[in-house]
Design goal:
single chain; 2 domains; Rossmann fold
Length: 321
């Protein structure tokens, strides 16, 4: 049975929390197409957020179909869908396998991960994700977690801070930045965004200030939420829970995530190390569907500027290893 797809070109009005847009998904149509949805299948949206992707998945499912939406953020609960086919799981997707077992699900037909920070998080000053507003140095996706950006800045060693900014922010002056932070916190501990920015301003020229500051905040956010470790855990779990020919669809927004996903899709490991059989065929559990990464059109970017950095990769579980 085929379900007619109905994906609007302008989806600003489908991800609304109260009267405000919670998040506008990037590459929505391409993402749903990439899942190659089985109308009677079981799917998982591991980054539920505003529910934009989940709504479109449900439109393609029959009454027999099922969708689980994961999100560790308390704010996302308000967007949970009132649909008998939908199950909301308030948890980090690193516990995906455990919750599938809890719901008596062994295998699924597809997994979707939109790894970007939602517009809601960037626009809520008190969450601390954006340097546009003053507010607490928080950056937690899970507000119950004890690790905040302030804790990182005030307790990590100079070496730990330098490694974090270099690895996760790709900042080549990371050691100087770390040294300045450690010196500054001895006088006044960091707790607010604007005073922290003032400490960093001497390192960034006016023409690149926003770009470099974004890298600093990216590094802090990745560390606070352990994003790279969680992503690795998700990808590894997908190898055990996807049905043969099941699809894994991942949207990334920075080179660290994209490189890791690309390597894993191609080789089955995070380093991208290729193993070949006797005939020279690459040994990997996944088949890459799009060899060339999918990016947003200029028209979409004009409507949703945050789609500019989105990269979509699609893989399919092979029938047999």
């Amino acid at each position: 049975m085929k379900i007619k797809k109905n994906i609007p070109k302008n989806i600003d009005d489908i991800t609304v929390q109260g009267s405000e847009v919670y998040h506008t998904p990037a590459l929505l149509s391409e993402t749903i197409d990439g899942l190659n949805i089985n109308p009677d299948g079981i799917y998982v949206d591991v980054t539920f957020g505003g529910g934009g992707h989940s709504r479109e998945i449900l439109k393609n499912l029959t009454k027999k179909g099922k969708l689980l939406g994961f999100d560790q953020d308390e704010d996302a609960i308000k967007n949970a869908l009132d649909d008998s086919r939908f199950i909301f799981v308030r948890s980090n997707f690193q516990y995906l396998t455990n919750f599938l077992r809890y719901h008596n699900i062994e295998k699924v037909d597809g997994v979707l991960a939109d790894l970007g920070v939602s517009s809601h998080h960037f626009d809520e000053a008190e969450r601390g994700f954006s340097f546009r507003f003053d507010g607490a140095l928080d950056m937690r996706m899970n507000t119950k977690s004890p690790l905040t950006a302030a804790v990182v800045l005030n307790t990590y060693s100079e070496e730990q801070l330098a490694d974090m900014f270099y690895l996760y922010g790709e900042l080549h002056n990371s050691r100087k930045i770390a040294k300045t932070i450690v010196n500054a916190r001895t006088k006044t501990p960091f707790d607010q965004i604007f005073p922290f920015i003032e400490v960093l301003k001497p390192f960034f020229g006016r023409e690149k200030e926003k770009k470099d500051m974004a890298r600093v905040f990216q590094a802090l956010r990745i560390e606070v939420n352990k994003e790279m470790d969680v992503l690795k855990s998700l990808l590894e779990q997908c190898l055990t829970i996807l049905k043969p020919e099941g699809r894994l669809v991942v949207l990334t927004y920075h080179s660290l995530e994209d490189r890791l996903v690309k390597n894993f899709f191609r080789s089955g490991n995070f380093e991208g190390k290729l193993e070949k059989d006797f005939f020279g065929n690459i040994i990997t559990p996944l088949k890459t569907i799009n060899n060339k990464v999918i990016i947003a059109s200029e028209d979409e970017i004009a409507r949703n500027p945050r789609a500019r950095s989105a990269k979509l990769r699609i893989a399919e579980m092979k029938k047999s290893l």
